[in-house]
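Appendix B: complex inputs.
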Amino acid sequence: MKFAKPLPSYLLQRYQGWHATTYTENKAWYRRLADEGQRPRAMVISCCDSRVHVTSIFGADTGEFFIHRNIANLVPPYEPDGLQHGTSATVEYAVTALKVAHLIVLGHSNCGGVAGCMSMCSGHAPELDEKTSFVGRWMDILRPGYAAIEHVEGEQERLRALEKKAVCVSLENLMTFPFIEEAVNNGTLSLHGLWTDIGEGSLEYYEAKDDKFLPV
Amino acid sequence: MKFAKPLPSYLLQRYQGWHATTYTENKAWYRRLADEGQRPRAMVISCCDSRVHVTSIFGADTGEFFIHRNIANLVPPYEPDGLQHGTSATVEYAVTALKVAHLIVLGHSNCGGVAGCMSMCSGHAPELDEKTSFVGRWMDILRPGYAAIEHVEGEQERLRALEKKAVCVSLENLMTFPFIEEAVNNGTLSLHGLWTDIGEGSLEYYEAKDDKFLPV
Amino acid sequence: MKFAKPLPSYLLQRYQGWHATTYTENKAWYRRLADEGQRPRAMVISCCDSRVHVTSIFGADTGEFFIHRNIANLVPPYEPDGLQHGTSATVEYAVTALKVAHLIVLGHSNCGGVAGCMSMCSGHAPELDEKTSFVGRWMDILRPGYAAIEHVEGEQERLRALEKKAVCVSLENLMTFPFIEEAVNNGTLSLHGLWTDIGEGSLEYYEAKDDKFLPV
Amino acid sequence: MKFAKPLPSYLLQRYQGWHATTYTENKAWYRRLADEGQRPRAMVISCCDSRVHVTSIFGADTGEFFIHRNIANLVPPYEPDGLQHGTSATVEYAVTALKVAHLIVLGHSNCGGVAGCMSMCSGHAPELDEKTSFVGRWMDILRPGYAAIEHVEGEQERLRALEKKAVCVSLENLMTFPFIEEAVNNGTLSLHGLWTDIGEGSLEYYEAKDDKFLPV
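Resulting structure:
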């Protein structure tokens, strides 16, 4: 692999700073986490977006959250077809092996993936329709959600509706996994839907009773 | 979705703490990141493991890293078959839309996914061999790497070798994506392989010249 | 300009080292910064002193800080008189064109400019009082601050008090610029005062509540 | 000063990293720099631009460069009128008090200040012509240089010519300071003109013999 390069020096410096402070002050805890394994209370599924770090928003301690991040925080439906399903693997591991107590889906404003999906579904992004578009095929998971928000007036409003729909579609798909449905039904697991506005720093949660998102 | 629950109160409290401090002190920057979009310098592919947060290790500022996290930081080879490839979608978005300058694969010690893969490949985990095991099928990506480390003496040593192999397999698979190979060749993208030891807090990088991992 | 000389060779060598390493490893990022323009999150006003490099203390990534350095990190009050105000031009550009989120004034110990100001104000440096002294006239900005610390006992203590006063005077003068006051009031800009001790490597910040500098 | 805020936490963390590594490893040297004062070999006048850090390009050691940074690395002509001249104060201090051996003016590509000057001089930026524009009045220093490059064909080429002219104008203005002319003439000080291309990472120097910039 002649192409691989060493760590860029600005990151090397920062790593050394982390090692000399955070790590050194918490050495015993890191040692223990390594020896005894992780025991996270919650799994969070959020977006890759560089502006939304769940570890920051929820002040995550090391060892606390099992975090899967993908484009637009999507979960596909249960499909045990023997093919590679990276996201399904993460929830299977979190629920059956780590037995997390909470499974949180965190959506966000200004989501590039969701915006791409809206363009695609409304016929404005033929390149995403192509078989070879990984982003397009991934966003297909959200296609069923588009129908439900198509009528919303105002492009901004429609986009926000689709971002929140992405959270709901993921929650619904999560319930199609037998091991999740079972854990939810016997009370060992709870599912949560959240959406955060990057610019406002606000947070909304999905309220089942009203079937809508409310400010926390 | 009657099953969805509000945010657990311990997280609500922490979010409020974040909003009253970090967000409030940096409001203008969040507002701007929302309005002008993200411009991350690097993409990091790391594990979901709750003990390895790249944002902490590299003191990531909001807006700096585009982060994909999956089981065992794996990237499958390029397969434009029209099916859902969540991981491939993340690298496509990072490289072609965001045009990140660095793509970093970060592996780690005590990786549950890699340990499962070793059990599976050595015939000790028949449940992972089943068609319905999402984790097993996902870890298939690492199978070709197992052959190369099978001979390593000592279980701990073999495990570490396979953890590092996971980084190399991902780097090799990344280069099978035409848009990545092109960006690497014309110098607009560089690939980096890293491995961190949770207990020691140490960091190693893949050195192409020697074809092995060296301490930073 | 017959007088101009080529780059001294010790610097040439270092530039070549930088180009072969840092630049080459980060080529794509530099290319992009050139093409897309800078988007610094913060402006820092610090001293020219060769012992205080803000880029080092805060591990600044390229593109992150807009930096103005002058004698004693001073900012004069708002004076739109049509004359040349180099420092006022830097803050105008940072706040109105670049729209930085933070404006940080960083003072430091052992400041030659501040020591000169103290000598001048206490009548021990007549040469600085002369009309032709650029340093003297520049340090006039800090004269109003001298009255407030004149009573402090002990020369070292008085000097430190004046160094910190230089930070406060600059912060107060910054607020006399209409575009800064407006940005602060509508929450898009925050001002910060810091003072670092060169020998101790310590850092203090101005705490508004107590109207004094506290260790970070 | 109710408006002043504490240090943003992302910078606090980085400072702590610097203190635990760079500072701690070099404590004795910092202690000595504090006790004995600075003795920089060179002064560098460069731009505030966040993409051009002279400390990085020339691998500056602590204590080595006395650095003045302003918009477009400009030096006004000698004007001992008793008014505030921040830039003149920096060169006076560097040459008469610190007795630096080199005085380097470093210009750069993609300079926002120079671009503004070109717009202003060609009549396309009336807002910069206003008496109240600090940036406009500051860029007046470069006005005499505009005439010399006005004829250059191609906007990009003209811009680059003006960026390099900014270096030359500053060098010429430096020589109008009696203490600089004297130091240059008796061989204790040398002046140097440089220009760097951000995207290419290249460096050119002003060659007196040919009266033009050549690659180093």
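Chain B has a mean pLDDT of 95.
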